[in-house]
Amino acid sequence: MVSGKVKKAVIPAAGLGTRFLPATKSVPKELLPIVDRPTIEHIVDEVHQSGIETAIIISRRGKSAILDHFERDVDLENKLKKEGKFELARRLNEQSELITIVSVRQSVPLGLGQAVYTARSLVGDEPFAVLLGDDIFDSSLPATLQLIQVFEKFQKPVVALMTVESSDISKFGCAGGEFIEENILEINSIIEKPSVEEAPSNFAVVGRYVLTPTVFEILKDLPPGKGGEIQLTDALAKLIEQEGLLGYFVDGYRFDAGDQLGFLMANIHFGLKNEKLKDRLIAFLKDEIKSS
Ligand code: G1P
To answer: Which domains does the chain have, with CATH numbers?
Structure first.
């Protein structure tokens, strides 16, 4: 049975960040800033705004700075308060007060499926969300909350989808199926990073999922797939047979913050939403465009 409230979110953050080397040689990519906040804060914000109580961060050796980030630093807070910077002092600690953040380490980097499997005992026997840190959404209703609403309505696991150029489909999980509502696909096939010929559609899975614990049972015995890794997408292909799977086209902007161009675009997008930066950033961009 797949019912129950989504109270926990799994945030895989054990990747090596190779697309951002050398920047990510000693700084986890999840801590690279989008304007003034590390990307992982955008994710944790979405978790909180989606009504979820606990974030489970899947980390690995060498990435403890992520957890340090969420630990209270009383000395720094006091220093800021003495300087009259009360708002900044409050923000330093905001997220860990709003949400319970726990962590588990993935000791062997065997892929996204294995990372999610690492969270099984912390998730327990209830539905849960998965948020990939490379995908940053800006939407009036948080992307994860949109998925939760679909999950609650149809009582089926659901993944976020986006239409991409066919030539880009090999960078994503790809889902094919039949539309049951304008924005909702009943998925009948899903395949990790297919070639253009193999792809059942140009509907790409973008990093948000609401899943059921059945996926842990599937992942337990799942053989490695694409790239020799345990693929979450392969587990979802099996989930179709057991519980069904929906695809939901999220309403909002999505940035691939794990890609250099996407990261720059996210910084510009959120920079333009920042009242203190907006006017000067626009002027700068206009000048840059003129002289490029
Ligand atoms: C992962 C998933 C893939 C999904 C993508 C979304 O791939 O394996 O199915 O489409 O995230 O960003 P990655 O980009 O980590 O290689």
So the answer is: 8-291 (3.90.550.10)
